[in-house]
Amino acid sequence: MRILDLGEFHSERGGGVRSYSNGLMEAAAVRGHEVILVAPGPNDSAELVRGGRVLRYRAPRMPYDGTYHFPYRLGLMRRWVESLRPDVLQISSPYLPWLAARELRVPVRSYIYHSDPIGAYVTPFTDRWPRPLRDAALDVAWRWMRAVCNSCDVTVVAGEWLRAELGRHGVERVRAVPFGIAHQNFEPSRRSIAVRSRWAGSESAEVGAAIDEPCLLLIAGRLAIEKRQALLVRAVARLNESRPVSLLILGDGPESQRLRRLAERVLPRTRFLPFTRDAAEYAEILASADALVHGSCCETYGFVLVEALASGTPLVVPDRGGAAHLASAASHAKYSPGATESGVAAAIANLLDRPREPTRRAALEAARCHPSRQQHYDGLFDLYDELLARGPVRALTHA
Fold it and tell me: pTM of the prediction?
């Protein structure tokens, strides 16, 4: 089987979509399939990798995040699809890559619902609008998403909650193929006193320990405005007024400098660490934190969240989007999507006040509900085999 993926968010820095694409190629090699990724980049390039090829075309940098590039070359994308003749055309962006591919005839067309553009770019800005205006904006946004998804033979989502959500908005042919993680890389035994000492400044801090010992809180992921990490920094600073806490921010992105300036003002005991490619170091950090604090209301999955659970680390998350569906009541604390820093601080305090061992066990139990990465990709390949055997079910023109 040849799968051609038309992507957009393929950053040189890394990130969830790039990690997913890399994993797809590795899994394809195991199953004897070929994956060809087509994405904008800093230069024209062609790279052979295990499991397929990465074709990049030169494109201008995005203004907000320069590690992403603008996928403007619709004609080039179409020519690659027509010349490479994939069995499955996989679309990973609802914007220009979809426009390039929507009229092309291929055996199977699949849309991978990696991101939630409505939750990221529409809902946050319309929540406080008058209801008629807000409803009108959301109606326009959902009309677009229905056109994207319903022009495909299948829309693949990470979980049943998202399948149900899309179904409520009129999206057809949605299949949940649960995403997964590399479970073998994450476990509580990686918890390290040395790591805690380095990042928290205390060699003995544990959840439930004496009040004068700082807990280590972790923010991890792409540092971007829709992830709302500034709110989290202010919340941790508010919590620090009543109990000592240390904060480690693991990641990079367009908000990095602004977050550093904010932390210098409100929470000097904040450390920053760029994305690390050292898998062992990453696993040790996840296992050594007392909680992972997350701000995004528009996750479709959240790999770092499940990896934290598999490390025995509980979560503090908003009660909206994928983050709210990943854990269990015993392994995380929720706060309202519209919560202020005080509300987020209260949720963190609620979690930290619980006994550590039952919370750790609950986190591990929640992680076990998620498949492995290979199981997810095997499920995706099996779905494509099923669709190829059945033939296309979409309309010949987008609707």
Answer: 0.91
- The reply to whether domains 2-180+372-390 and 183-368 share a CATH topology is yes
DSSP letter at 189 equals G
pLDDT at residue 18 in the model:
80
Phi and psi at residue 269, to the nearest 5°? -80, 50
DSSP string across 224-258: -GGGTHHHHHHHHHHHHTTS-EEEEEE--STTHHH
CATH 3.40.50.2000 fits 2-180+372-390, yes or no: yes
| E strand intervals along the chain | 2-6, 34-41, 45-49, 52-58, 88-91, 108-112, 154-157, 174-176, 215-220, 245-250, 270-273, 291-293, 315-318, 332-335
Structure-block tokens of residue 239: 């919590």
Q: Which amino acid is at 279?
A: A
Q: What is the mean pLDDT of residues 249-263?
A: 96
pLDDT tens-digit map of 338-365:
999 999 999 999 999 999 999 999 999 9
Instruction: State residue 305 phi and psi, 5-degree precision.
Output: -65, -45
Strands 154-157 and 332-335: unpaired
CB 112 within 8 A of CB 92: yes
Give 14 or 152, the one with higher predicted confidence.
Answer: 152
Between the alpha carbon of residue 266 and those of residues 91, 253, 290, 300, 343, the distances in Å are 42, 20, 21, 31, 17
Tell me: pLDDT of 14 over 70: no
For range 114-123, the mean pLDDT: 92
* Whole-number Å distance between alpha carbons of 296 and 226: 6
Annotate 1-64 with DSSP letters as a single string.
-EEEEE-S---SS--HHHHHHHHHHHHHHHHT-EEEEEEEESS-EEEEETTEEEEEEE-PBPSS
Residues 50-54 have a mean pLDDT of 94
Is beta strand 108-112 parallel, antiparallel or unpaired with respect to 154-157?
parallel
Beta-carbon contacts of 171 under 8 Å, excluding residues fewer than 6 positions away, are: 145, 146, 149, 150, 155
How far apart CA 219 and CA 202 sit, in angstroms, is: 18
Which residue reads 């609008």 in tokens?
129
The answer to whether the Cα torsion of 339, 341, 346, 347 is positive or negative is: positive
What topology is assigned to 183-368 in CATH?
A: Rossmann fold (3.40.50)
Query: With bands split at pLDDT 50, 70 and 90, how would you rate the model's confidence at 9?
Result: confident
Q: Where are the domains of the chain?
A: 2-180+372-390, 183-368
